[in-house]
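User: Show me a protein chain along with its predicted structure.
Assistant: Here is one chain, sequence first, then C-alpha coordinates.
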Amino acid sequence: MVAPTDSRIRFLTALGRALHSYGIPAHRLEAALANAAARLDIRAEFLSTPTSLTSSFGEPGEQHVTLVRVQPGDLHLDKLVKLNAVVDGLTADELSVESAERRLTEIDTAPTRYGPVTTVAAFAVTAGLACRFFGGGWPEMASALVLGLVTGLLGWAAGRSETMARTFDFVAAAVVSFLAAAASVLVTPLATNEITIATLIVLLPGLTLTLALNELNMGHWVAGTARLTGSMTTFLKIGLGVGIGRKVAELVLGAAPATAPEPTPGWTLWFALAVTPLALGVLFRARAREIPWIVLGSAVAFLGAREGVGWLGPGLGTVVGSLAVGLLANIYARWRRKPAVVMVVPSIILLVPGSIGYQGLSMLMAKDVMSGVDTAFLALLVGVSLVAGLLLANVLVPPRNAL
Protein backbone atom coordinates (compact mmCIF):
# COMPACT_ATOMS: atom_id res chain seq x y z
CA MET A 1 0.00 0.00 0.00
CA VAL A 2 1.24 3.48 -0.86
CA ALA A 3 1.79 5.63 2.22
CA PRO A 4 -0.10 8.94 2.22
CA THR A 5 3.15 10.66 3.19
CA ASP A 6 4.97 9.35 0.10
CA SER A 7 6.79 12.29 -1.50
CA ARG A 8 5.75 11.04 -4.93
CA ILE A 9 2.09 11.54 -4.03
CA ARG A 10 2.73 15.08 -2.84
CA PHE A 11 4.64 15.88 -6.01
CA LEU A 12 2.03 14.43 -8.39
CA THR A 13 -0.80 16.20 -6.54
CA ALA A 14 1.07 19.51 -6.66
CA LEU A 15 1.89 18.99 -10.36
CA GLY A 16 -1.77 18.29 -11.14
CA ARG A 17 -2.91 21.38 -9.29
CA ALA A 18 -0.33 23.51 -11.11
CA LEU A 19 -1.21 22.16 -14.57
CA HIS A 20 -4.90 22.71 -13.88
CA SER A 21 -4.39 26.27 -12.70
CA TYR A 22 -2.42 27.10 -15.86
CA GLY A 23 -5.25 26.13 -18.21
CA ILE A 24 -4.37 22.62 -19.47
CA PRO A 25 -7.39 20.62 -20.83
CA ALA A 26 -8.39 17.40 -19.07
CA HIS A 27 -6.99 14.84 -21.51
CA ARG A 28 -3.56 16.50 -21.68
CA LEU A 29 -3.44 16.99 -17.90
CA GLU A 30 -4.30 13.37 -17.17
CA ALA A 31 -1.81 12.11 -19.75
CA ALA A 32 0.97 14.31 -18.34
CA LEU A 33 0.30 13.09 -14.80
CA ALA A 34 0.12 9.46 -15.93
CA ASN A 35 3.49 9.79 -17.67
CA ALA A 36 5.03 11.40 -14.59
CA ALA A 37 3.60 8.66 -12.33
CA ALA A 38 5.02 5.95 -14.60
CA ARG A 39 8.46 7.58 -14.41
CA LEU A 40 8.19 7.64 -10.62
CA ASP A 41 7.21 3.96 -10.57
CA ILE A 42 3.92 4.49 -8.80
CA ARG A 43 0.56 3.16 -9.95
CA ALA A 44 -1.86 6.06 -10.27
CA GLU A 45 -5.09 7.06 -11.99
CA PHE A 46 -6.40 10.58 -12.47
CA LEU A 47 -9.75 12.20 -13.20
CA SER A 48 -9.81 15.89 -14.08
CA THR A 49 -12.81 18.19 -14.42
CA PRO A 50 -12.80 21.99 -14.74
CA THR A 51 -13.36 22.32 -10.97
CA SER A 52 -11.72 19.27 -9.41
CA LEU A 53 -8.86 16.78 -9.70
CA THR A 54 -9.23 13.29 -8.24
CA SER A 55 -6.16 11.05 -7.97
CA SER A 56 -5.76 7.49 -6.73
CA PHE A 57 -2.40 5.91 -5.89
CA GLY A 58 -1.57 2.26 -5.32
CA GLU A 59 -3.00 -1.10 -6.29
CA PRO A 60 -6.80 -1.63 -6.52
CA GLY A 61 -8.22 -2.23 -3.06
CA GLU A 62 -5.26 -0.54 -1.40
CA GLN A 63 -5.51 2.88 -3.00
CA HIS A 64 -4.87 6.23 -1.41
CA VAL A 65 -7.26 8.78 -2.94
CA THR A 66 -6.84 12.56 -2.99
CA LEU A 67 -9.39 15.16 -4.08
CA VAL A 68 -8.26 18.67 -4.96
CA ARG A 69 -10.83 21.43 -5.42
CA VAL A 70 -9.63 23.79 -8.14
CA GLN A 71 -10.92 26.63 -10.28
CA PRO A 72 -10.41 26.87 -14.04
CA GLY A 73 -7.25 28.87 -14.64
CA ASP A 74 -5.99 31.11 -17.41
CA LEU A 75 -3.33 29.84 -19.75
CA HIS A 76 0.11 30.74 -18.39
CA LEU A 77 2.65 29.74 -21.03
CA ASP A 78 5.73 30.86 -19.12
CA LYS A 79 4.94 28.67 -16.13
CA LEU A 80 3.93 25.76 -18.36
CA VAL A 81 7.38 25.84 -19.94
CA LYS A 82 8.95 25.80 -16.48
CA LEU A 83 6.70 22.93 -15.36
CA ASN A 84 7.68 21.01 -18.47
CA ALA A 85 11.35 21.52 -17.59
CA VAL A 86 10.74 20.17 -14.08
CA VAL A 87 9.06 17.03 -15.43
CA ASP A 88 11.88 16.56 -17.95
CA GLY A 89 14.46 16.95 -15.20
CA LEU A 90 12.69 14.40 -13.05
CA THR A 91 12.43 11.98 -15.98
CA ALA A 92 16.14 12.31 -16.76
CA ASP A 93 17.05 11.76 -13.07
CA GLU A 94 18.47 15.28 -12.94
CA LEU A 95 16.07 16.23 -10.13
CA SER A 96 14.95 14.33 -7.06
CA VAL A 97 11.27 14.23 -6.16
CA GLU A 98 11.91 16.63 -3.29
CA SER A 99 13.79 19.08 -5.52
CA ALA A 100 11.06 18.88 -8.15
CA GLU A 101 8.43 19.60 -5.50
CA ARG A 102 10.37 22.66 -4.33
CA ARG A 103 10.63 23.85 -7.95
CA LEU A 104 6.84 23.58 -8.30
CA THR A 105 6.40 25.82 -5.27
CA GLU A 106 8.87 28.35 -6.67
CA ILE A 107 7.08 28.39 -10.03
CA ASP A 108 3.67 28.81 -8.40
CA THR A 109 4.77 31.68 -6.16
CA ALA A 110 6.84 33.48 -8.81
CA PRO A 111 5.46 36.90 -9.85
CA THR A 112 3.64 37.28 -13.13
CA ARG A 113 6.05 37.83 -16.01
CA TYR A 114 4.29 40.98 -17.29
CA GLY A 115 3.09 43.77 -15.03
CA PRO A 116 -0.30 45.48 -15.13
CA VAL A 117 0.85 48.32 -17.42
CA THR A 118 2.13 45.92 -20.09
CA THR A 119 -0.94 43.71 -19.78
CA VAL A 120 -3.39 46.60 -20.10
CA ALA A 121 -1.46 47.89 -23.13
CA ALA A 122 -1.68 44.39 -24.68
CA PHE A 123 -5.47 44.44 -24.24
CA ALA A 124 -5.59 47.75 -26.11
CA VAL A 125 -3.30 46.65 -28.96
CA THR A 126 -5.15 43.36 -29.41
CA ALA A 127 -8.53 45.11 -29.60
CA GLY A 128 -7.35 47.80 -32.01
CA LEU A 129 -5.68 45.41 -34.43
CA ALA A 130 -8.36 42.71 -34.15
CA CYS A 131 -10.81 45.33 -35.41
CA ARG A 132 -8.86 45.28 -38.69
CA PHE A 133 -9.50 41.54 -39.04
CA PHE A 134 -13.22 42.21 -38.69
CA GLY A 135 -13.17 44.85 -41.43
CA GLY A 136 -13.06 47.99 -39.30
CA GLY A 137 -11.72 51.26 -40.66
CA TRP A 138 -9.37 53.74 -39.01
CA PRO A 139 -12.03 55.30 -36.71
CA GLU A 140 -13.19 51.85 -35.61
CA MET A 141 -9.64 50.66 -34.97
CA ALA A 142 -8.87 53.76 -32.90
CA SER A 143 -12.09 53.35 -30.92
CA ALA A 144 -11.37 49.67 -30.29
CA LEU A 145 -7.88 50.59 -29.11
CA VAL A 146 -9.31 52.99 -26.51
CA LEU A 147 -12.01 50.56 -25.42
CA GLY A 148 -9.41 47.79 -25.20
CA LEU A 149 -7.56 50.00 -22.76
CA VAL A 150 -10.77 50.34 -20.73
CA THR A 151 -11.25 46.56 -20.81
CA GLY A 152 -7.69 46.01 -19.66
CA LEU A 153 -8.20 48.36 -16.72
CA LEU A 154 -11.40 46.53 -15.78
CA GLY A 155 -9.50 43.25 -15.99
CA TRP A 156 -6.80 44.62 -13.70
CA ALA A 157 -9.48 45.66 -11.20
CA ALA A 158 -11.13 42.23 -11.48
CA GLY A 159 -7.84 40.58 -10.61
CA ARG A 160 -7.81 42.44 -7.29
CA SER A 161 -11.41 41.63 -6.31
CA GLU A 162 -13.08 38.21 -6.29
CA THR A 163 -16.52 39.79 -6.57
CA MET A 164 -15.46 41.86 -9.57
CA ALA A 165 -13.85 38.80 -11.15
CA ARG A 166 -17.15 36.92 -11.15
CA THR A 167 -18.93 39.73 -13.01
CA PHE A 168 -16.03 40.90 -15.17
CA ASP A 169 -17.32 39.50 -18.49
CA PHE A 170 -20.76 41.05 -18.03
CA VAL A 171 -19.49 44.42 -16.80
CA ALA A 172 -16.85 44.70 -19.52
CA ALA A 173 -19.39 43.86 -22.24
CA ALA A 174 -21.89 46.42 -20.92
CA VAL A 175 -19.27 49.18 -20.59
CA VAL A 176 -17.75 48.51 -24.03
CA SER A 177 -21.09 48.42 -25.85
CA PHE A 178 -22.28 51.59 -24.08
CA LEU A 179 -19.10 53.52 -24.87
CA ALA A 180 -19.05 52.34 -28.49
CA ALA A 181 -22.63 53.50 -28.99
CA ALA A 182 -21.94 56.78 -27.16
CA ALA A 183 -18.91 57.48 -29.36
CA SER A 184 -20.98 56.81 -32.46
CA VAL A 185 -23.62 59.32 -31.32
CA LEU A 186 -21.42 62.03 -29.78
CA VAL A 187 -18.19 61.90 -31.81
CA THR A 188 -18.61 60.35 -35.27
CA PRO A 189 -20.74 57.60 -36.79
CA LEU A 190 -19.03 54.23 -36.21
CA ALA A 191 -19.58 50.58 -37.05
CA THR A 192 -20.27 49.66 -33.43
CA ASN A 193 -20.61 45.90 -34.03
CA GLU A 194 -17.06 45.60 -35.34
CA ILE A 195 -15.73 47.70 -32.44
CA THR A 196 -17.58 45.66 -29.83
CA ILE A 197 -16.51 42.25 -31.17
CA ALA A 198 -12.88 43.33 -31.57
CA THR A 199 -12.71 44.77 -28.07
CA LEU A 200 -14.27 41.69 -26.47
CA ILE A 201 -12.39 39.14 -28.63
CA VAL A 202 -10.08 38.16 -25.78
CA LEU A 203 -13.05 37.60 -23.45
CA LEU A 204 -15.15 35.59 -25.91
CA PRO A 205 -14.93 31.89 -24.99
CA GLY A 206 -14.07 30.61 -28.45
CA LEU A 207 -10.95 28.91 -27.11
CA THR A 208 -12.92 27.36 -24.25
CA LEU A 209 -15.50 26.09 -26.74
CA THR A 210 -12.76 24.54 -28.88
CA LEU A 211 -11.14 22.90 -25.83
CA ALA A 212 -14.53 21.53 -24.78
CA LEU A 213 -15.10 19.96 -28.21
CA ASN A 214 -11.59 18.51 -28.06
CA GLU A 215 -12.24 16.97 -24.63
CA LEU A 216 -15.55 15.51 -25.81
CA ASN A 217 -13.83 14.05 -28.85
CA MET A 218 -11.18 12.46 -26.60
CA GLY A 219 -13.91 10.78 -24.51
CA HIS A 220 -13.71 13.10 -21.51
CA TRP A 221 -17.46 13.57 -21.29
CA VAL A 222 -17.68 15.15 -17.84
CA ALA A 223 -14.87 17.65 -18.39
CA GLY A 224 -15.97 18.46 -21.94
CA THR A 225 -19.62 18.95 -21.00
CA ALA A 226 -18.71 21.13 -18.03
CA ARG A 227 -16.36 23.26 -20.13
CA LEU A 228 -18.95 23.52 -22.90
CA THR A 229 -21.57 24.67 -20.40
CA GLY A 230 -19.13 27.19 -19.02
CA SER A 231 -18.47 28.63 -22.47
CA MET A 232 -22.21 28.93 -23.12
CA THR A 233 -22.63 30.74 -19.79
CA THR A 234 -19.88 33.19 -20.73
CA PHE A 235 -21.51 33.81 -24.11
CA LEU A 236 -24.79 34.58 -22.36
CA LYS A 237 -23.15 36.96 -19.87
CA ILE A 238 -21.36 38.85 -22.62
CA GLY A 239 -24.44 38.93 -24.83
CA LEU A 240 -26.58 40.21 -21.98
CA GLY A 241 -24.00 42.85 -21.10
CA VAL A 242 -23.79 44.06 -24.70
CA GLY A 243 -27.57 44.24 -24.97
CA ILE A 244 -27.96 46.23 -21.74
CA GLY A 245 -25.11 48.60 -22.61
CA ARG A 246 -26.60 49.41 -26.01
CA LYS A 247 -30.08 49.86 -24.60
CA VAL A 248 -28.89 52.24 -21.89
CA ALA A 249 -26.96 54.25 -24.49
CA GLU A 250 -30.05 54.42 -26.69
CA LEU A 251 -32.24 55.57 -23.80
CA VAL A 252 -29.76 58.24 -22.68
CA LEU A 253 -28.29 59.44 -25.98
CA GLY A 254 -30.57 58.17 -28.70
CA ALA A 255 -30.02 55.48 -31.31
CA ALA A 256 -26.52 55.22 -32.76
CA PRO A 257 -26.47 55.87 -36.52
CA ALA A 258 -25.86 52.79 -38.68
CA THR A 259 -22.75 53.12 -40.81
CA ALA A 260 -20.38 50.90 -42.76
CA PRO A 261 -16.65 51.13 -42.02
CA GLU A 262 -14.36 52.73 -44.57
CA PRO A 263 -11.86 50.22 -46.06
CA THR A 264 -8.22 50.53 -45.02
CA PRO A 265 -5.10 49.84 -47.13
CA GLY A 266 -4.11 46.22 -47.64
CA TRP A 267 -0.85 46.61 -45.73
CA THR A 268 -2.78 47.18 -42.51
CA LEU A 269 -3.89 43.54 -42.53
CA TRP A 270 -0.29 42.32 -42.65
CA PHE A 271 0.71 44.80 -39.98
CA ALA A 272 -2.09 43.51 -37.75
CA LEU A 273 -1.07 39.92 -38.45
CA ALA A 274 2.53 40.68 -37.41
CA VAL A 275 1.79 42.72 -34.27
CA THR A 276 -1.33 41.04 -32.82
CA PRO A 277 0.58 37.86 -31.83
CA LEU A 278 3.00 40.04 -29.83
CA ALA A 279 0.13 41.35 -27.74
CA LEU A 280 -1.40 37.88 -27.43
CA GLY A 281 1.95 36.58 -26.23
CA VAL A 282 1.80 39.09 -23.40
CA LEU A 283 -1.81 38.20 -22.53
CA PHE A 284 -0.95 34.49 -22.46
CA ARG A 285 2.23 35.30 -20.48
CA ALA A 286 4.66 33.78 -22.94
CA ARG A 287 8.39 34.33 -22.56
CA ALA A 288 9.94 36.87 -24.91
CA ARG A 289 12.07 34.21 -26.61
CA GLU A 290 8.91 32.28 -27.56
CA ILE A 291 7.08 35.24 -29.13
CA PRO A 292 8.81 34.98 -32.56
CA TRP A 293 7.52 31.40 -32.76
CA ILE A 294 4.05 32.59 -31.82
CA VAL A 295 4.19 35.19 -34.60
CA LEU A 296 5.24 32.50 -37.09
CA GLY A 297 2.52 30.15 -35.91
CA SER A 298 -0.13 32.87 -36.13
CA ALA A 299 0.88 33.69 -39.70
CA VAL A 300 0.77 30.00 -40.69
CA ALA A 301 -2.63 29.51 -39.03
CA PHE A 302 -4.17 32.64 -40.55
CA LEU A 303 -2.87 32.09 -44.08
CA GLY A 304 -3.73 28.39 -43.96
CA ALA A 305 -7.26 29.12 -42.78
CA ARG A 306 -7.71 31.78 -45.47
CA GLU A 307 -6.68 29.32 -48.17
CA GLY A 308 -8.82 26.63 -46.58
CA VAL A 309 -11.91 28.84 -46.61
CA GLY A 310 -11.37 29.35 -50.33
CA TRP A 311 -11.20 25.59 -50.87
CA LEU A 312 -13.70 24.21 -48.37
CA GLY A 313 -15.89 27.13 -47.31
CA PRO A 314 -16.12 29.13 -44.06
CA GLY A 315 -17.21 26.22 -41.89
CA LEU A 316 -14.56 23.66 -42.81
CA GLY A 317 -11.75 25.88 -44.05
CA THR A 318 -10.21 26.40 -40.62
CA VAL A 319 -9.14 22.74 -40.62
CA VAL A 320 -6.31 23.71 -42.96
CA GLY A 321 -5.04 26.46 -40.65
CA SER A 322 -5.21 24.29 -37.52
CA LEU A 323 -3.54 21.36 -39.31
CA ALA A 324 -0.70 23.58 -40.52
CA VAL A 325 -0.04 25.18 -37.15
CA GLY A 326 -0.44 21.83 -35.36
CA LEU A 327 2.26 20.26 -37.53
CA LEU A 328 4.53 23.28 -37.03
CA ALA A 329 3.95 23.26 -33.25
CA ASN A 330 4.76 19.56 -32.91
CA ILE A 331 7.95 20.00 -34.93
CA TYR A 332 8.82 23.01 -32.74
CA ALA A 333 8.12 20.98 -29.57
CA ARG A 334 10.40 18.15 -30.69
CA TRP A 335 13.17 20.48 -31.79
CA ARG A 336 13.05 22.97 -28.91
CA ARG A 337 11.88 20.47 -26.26
CA LYS A 338 9.06 22.79 -25.24
CA PRO A 339 5.30 22.17 -24.91
CA ALA A 340 3.51 22.40 -28.27
CA VAL A 341 0.73 24.38 -26.58
CA VAL A 342 3.11 27.37 -26.39
CA MET A 343 2.75 27.81 -30.15
CA VAL A 344 -0.71 26.31 -30.75
CA VAL A 345 -2.98 28.35 -28.48
CA PRO A 346 -1.89 31.92 -29.31
CA SER A 347 -1.68 30.96 -33.00
CA ILE A 348 -5.28 29.75 -33.31
CA ILE A 349 -6.89 32.41 -31.12
CA LEU A 350 -7.92 34.42 -34.19
CA LEU A 351 -9.48 31.29 -35.72
CA VAL A 352 -11.56 30.12 -32.76
CA PRO A 353 -15.31 30.64 -33.18
CA GLY A 354 -15.84 33.15 -30.38
CA SER A 355 -16.87 36.05 -32.61
CA ILE A 356 -19.15 33.79 -34.68
CA GLY A 357 -20.83 32.47 -31.55
CA TYR A 358 -21.32 36.02 -30.29
CA GLN A 359 -22.91 37.04 -33.59
CA GLY A 360 -25.26 34.05 -33.40
CA LEU A 361 -26.29 35.00 -29.87
CA SER A 362 -26.88 38.61 -30.95
CA MET A 363 -29.16 37.42 -33.73
CA LEU A 364 -31.12 35.24 -31.33
CA MET A 365 -31.52 38.17 -28.91
CA ALA A 366 -32.77 40.26 -31.82
CA LYS A 367 -35.37 37.49 -32.48
CA ASP A 368 -33.75 36.57 -35.79
CA VAL A 369 -34.02 32.91 -34.87
CA MET A 370 -33.19 31.29 -38.20
CA SER A 371 -30.06 33.36 -38.77
CA GLY A 372 -29.02 32.95 -35.13
CA VAL A 373 -29.31 29.15 -35.21
CA ASP A 374 -27.47 29.02 -38.54
CA THR A 375 -24.63 31.16 -37.19
CA ALA A 376 -24.44 29.15 -33.96
CA PHE A 377 -24.15 25.96 -36.00
CA LEU A 378 -21.38 27.58 -38.03
CA ALA A 379 -19.52 28.35 -34.77
CA LEU A 380 -19.73 24.69 -33.75
CA LEU A 381 -18.58 23.61 -37.20
CA VAL A 382 -15.57 25.92 -37.02
CA GLY A 383 -14.72 24.56 -33.56
CA VAL A 384 -14.96 20.96 -34.79
CA SER A 385 -12.77 21.84 -37.80
CA LEU A 386 -10.10 23.30 -35.52
CA VAL A 387 -10.12 20.19 -33.35
CA ALA A 388 -9.97 17.89 -36.39
CA GLY A 389 -6.96 19.73 -37.79
CA LEU A 390 -5.05 19.53 -34.50
CA LEU A 391 -5.85 15.83 -34.05
CA LEU A 392 -4.70 15.05 -37.59
CA ALA A 393 -1.49 16.99 -36.93
CA ASN A 394 -0.86 14.80 -33.86
CA VAL A 395 -1.26 11.70 -36.00
CA LEU A 396 1.11 12.90 -38.72
CA VAL A 397 3.73 14.30 -36.32
CA PRO A 398 3.16 12.84 -32.81
CA PRO A 399 3.85 15.38 -30.05
CA ARG A 400 6.92 14.97 -27.85
CA ASN A 401 4.85 14.73 -24.68
CA ALA A 402 1.32 15.30 -23.38
CA LEU A 403 1.79 19.07 -23.17
